[in-house]
Every structure is written in structure tokens, then in C-alpha cells.
Design brief:
This protein is of the alpha/beta class. The chain has helices at residues 10-25, 56-65, 94-124, 143-152, 170-173, 178-188, 201-208, 222-234, 253-257, 268-271; strands at 39-46, 50-51, 70-73, 80-81, 86-93, 131-133, 166-168, 194-198, 214-218, 241-245, 263-265, 278-282. The protein has two domains: 10-123 and 273-282, Aldehyde Oxidoreductase, domain 3; 126-271, Alpha-Beta Barrel (TIM Barrel). It is 40% helix and 19% strand.
Length: 283
């Protein structure tokens, strides 16, 4: 299946690359300085099965280190890769290649791990109406790249931050009730989508009486989720989306998707992934 990831977030990537190189190189790569001043070639080789993500980073990283470095790709962004598959080869001064090695691998392995895990979740819900969404549970500085990785793996992005969507959760509801909170959000931010969290069917009924665009079913049982879907369908003329969240793993994901919810939010995509092991082998 072909997925269309978001355009690569180049500016966010460059900001992160500059920070990563600054903290790694510091006053200079003292070990690489000991190597012979010659041109060499290194190969990026995959050591596991997964989805490759972050290939554009390789050129961006080496452009910051040494414009003489050349990168040739042998894999396509978002495609499945396997052990011993060559992903790219890099040619240039040995010192420069060595200096950028860890930054390239750190980012490429992490983003590919996120994309790989996302693809597993997406494949698990195939054939249902449910779509897999990420969350804001990302490492500082990695927000845009993490969400890019989720899209590359076939998932969808929830809000990017606190500014592009209203999400009224339980802690907000201790100050205002569901109806009042949604009404105020719609009045103040008419152009933003509004999502509200509910924990039971009583709260769901109240949320359905508002103009909320999305209703999050937080830590509901499968039985209650099924009832929530039936109840929501019974409200004529509504386009509200139901989103399941909390305690959902690959073990119970399929059953959650079969309840009929439209969206499933998974924080693990960007905080509990395993990296895709990739090495840089010098010729």
C-alpha cells in the first residue's frame, strides 16, 4: 500500500540538526582529526525489518558539516526495508563522514522506529473505519519530525500543539462542565476544531448535545465503546467523530477498532517505539 507522508519539515529538521551537531562536535571532533585526510565511501545498511524514514536528513546533516560530501540513495522514503539492505552511500572526506555518523544514525534510527511501529498499528486496523492518530507525547525538539514519521508510517496527526485545536480534557472539566466548556471554545475559536474528553456514557450524552467536533472516549471498556458508537449514530445529522484513547496496545487494538470508533490515539507511536537498527559501514 502506498502512503503519502507530509512534506518533509526541512526548517524544523535544520534547527534540530544544528543543535545536535553543536552538542556532539563542541569545539571539534578530536578523534576524527587523527584520521587520514582522504576521500572515502560509507554505506548506510539496515539491520532489521521496518519502514525507512528520515532519508532527507542525511544530506541536510552533511551539508552543515562539509559541502563536499555527496549522498546517493538506494531506498525510498516510507518503503519497507530488510536486513542487509543498503539504504544509501556517502562519499567525501573521511573526517567529515565520521563526524556526522552519530547524528545521522541517531535521527534515522529513531524516525524509522516510529514509522515502523505506526505501520504495525495501521496494518492491524485495516478493514475497519478506524484511523491511527498520534499525540503530543514527543521529545522536545522532535515534534514535527515525529509527526512526519507517523505520517510516513501511514498514521494521521492529531494536533501539532496547544495552538491549532481545542482539546478539553478531564482537568479542564474540573473548572467548567462539558456543555459550558464546548460552548465557550466554539465562541472564542470558531475556526478551530473542538474535541472533548468523556469517561462514561452519561458524559457522552452531554457531549453529543454540544457542537463538539470530536469526542474522546477515555479508557472506556469495549462494551461501553460499542454502546457509545450506537448512541452517536442515533443522533441524527451529526458528523461528530469518536476517538478511543487510553490503555490501547497492539494486543487489544483490533477489538477496539471493531467497535466502530473513527479514530484511535496512540501515544506509544512517538514515545515507546524501538529504533530500527541501522549501521554506517566504511568501505
Amino acid at each position: 500500500m502506498s502512503f503519502q507522508p507530509l512534506p518533509f519539515p526541512t526548517q524544523a529538521a535544520l534547527s534540530l540538526i544544528r543543535l545536535a551537531l553543536s552538542e556532539d562536535i563542541g569545539s571539534g571532533d578530536v578523534t576524527a582529526a587523527l584520521t587520514a585526510r582522504r576521500h572515502t565511501t560509507a554505506y548506510l545498511v539496515c539491520k532489521g525489518n521496518g519502514v525507512i524514514c528520515g532519508l532527507p536528513l542525511i544530506k541536510l546533516i552533511y551539508q552543515q558539516i562539509d559541502p563536499r560530501v555527496r549522498v546517493t540513495y538506494h531506498a525510498q522514503e516510507g518503503k519497507a526495508v530488510k536486513p542487509r539492505q543498503r539504504l544509501a552511500h556517502i562519499t567525501g572526506p573521511a573526517q567529515s563522514l565520521l563526524t556526522g555518523e552519530r547524528t545521522v544514525l541517531n535521527l534515522l534510527c529513531a524516525l524509522s522506529g516510529m514509522a515502523t511501529l505506526t505501520r504495525r498499528y495501521v496494518d492491524t486496523v485495516r478493514g475497519t473505519v478506524a484511523k491511527i492518530y498520534d499525540t503530543r507525547k514527543t521529545q522536545p525538539g522532535l515534534r514535527q519530525l515525529s509527526k512526519y514519521a507517523v505520517r510516513t508510517g501511514g498514521g494521521f496527526n492529531h494536533r501539532m500543539g496547544l495552538y491549532d485545536m481545542v482539546l478539553i480534557k478531564d482537568n479542564h472539566l474540573t473548572v467548567k462542565g462539558i456543555t459550558e466548556a464546548v460552548q465557550k471554545a466554539k465562541l472564542r475559536y470558531p475556526d478551530l476544531p473542538v474535541e472533548v474528553e468523556v469517561e462514561n456514557l452519561v458524559q457522552l450524552k452531554e457531549a453529543l448535545s454540544t457542537k463538539a467536533d470530536i469526542i474522546m472516549l477515555d479508557n472506556m471498556t469495549l462494551s461501553d465503546m460499542k454502546k457509545a458508537v450506537v448512541l452517536t449514530k442515533a443522533i441524527g445529522g451529526r458528523t461528530v467523530r469518536l476517538e478511543a484513547s487510553g490503555g490501547i496496545t497492539l494486543r487489544n487494538l483490533r477489538e477496539v477498532a471493531k467497535t466502530g470508533v473513527h479514530r484511535i490515539a496512540i501515544g506509544a507511536l512517538t514515545h515507546s517505539y524501538s529504533i530500527l537498527d541501522i549501521s554506517m559501514d566504511f568501505k
